[in-house]
Amino acid sequence: MRKTYDLDGSSLSGVPLTRDIGQARYLELAHASDASQDRYMASQTTPTLLVEANTLLREGLRRILAETAYNPVALSSSFEGLLTEWEAGAAPFLLIMDSARDHDDACEQVRRIKQQYASARVLMLVDQYDLKQIISAFQAGADAYLVKSVSCEVLVKTLDLVMLGEVVFPSAVLELLNEHVLRPSVETDAHGAVKSSGEHFQSKGLSVRETVILRCLMEGDSNKLIARKFDITEATVKVHVKAILRKIHAKNRTQAAIWAASHLPVDGQMSA
């Protein structure tokens, strides 16, 4: 299972999802000494491709990355132009791509890259965060997703984590989840009759207790807090969380929270 990280480590009110699983490892990288960083960069070189339509930004990124392990080996204003300049081999490589102009097309390109090159790592750059677009990007297989206004340090640390096989998830998506207006999903059965959200949960096999815990995950509650709320042990909470992830086909707590934001009924305050 690939873990998901909140890169900037910000403390969002009531939503410490990614902190629970990734903060310690990120801080280990972020606070490493200069000497350790130099040794790391000297021992790691990653073929890096850069796709950015804006000439000034493309050149700026090239200069930023020139002194790192991610010195671009090919640059282009378009994805098609990049493929004519460089042919990927079997070794892992990194693709940094502009996704602000046509997000849907960028996601399709990511999907194709991932299908053709299993070891490829992809960082998508956008102008601003949008919940639906973020979900689409990670469903397509993006390994990281950042706005172009991030600092140089954040960019490089993100690439370090990505090349370690991790997924870097923007903390802003958690704020977007909090702002997301939850509406019951309306579905119809084989006869055209409307089914309630509760029926949809039953089709997923979620029990009442699991549904309530899923709501807690969406609100950012830790296992300890959930255990305290329902007077159960943390071990029991972990069992429930694993069952929830399996039933809704989520890889981690963050994906479960996103799923819940789209499927949990507004008035689903059920007793556990």
Could you explain how this protein is built, in words?
There is one protein chain. By secondary structure, the chain is α/β, with parallel strands linked by helices. It folds into two domains: about 5-175, Rossmann fold (3-Layer(aba) Sandwich), CATH 3.40.50; about 185-265, Winged helix-like DNA-binding domain superfamily/Winged helix DNA-binding domain (Arc Repressor Mutant, subunit A). The chain has helices at about 15-30, 35-45, 55-65, 80-85, 105-115, 130-140, 150-165, 170-180, 195-205, 210-220, 225-230, 235-250, 255-265; strands at about 5, 50, 70-75, 95-100, 120-125, 145, 165-170, 185-190, 195. The strands form three sheets. Strands 3-2-4-5-6 form a five-stranded parallel β-sheet, sandwiched between helices. Strands 1-7 form a two-stranded parallel ribbon. A hairpin with a 5-residue loop joins strand 8 (about 185-190) and strand 9. Helix 5 (about 105-115) runs parallel beside helix 6. Residues about 5-20, about 40, about 180-205 and about 265-270 have low confidence and may be disordered.
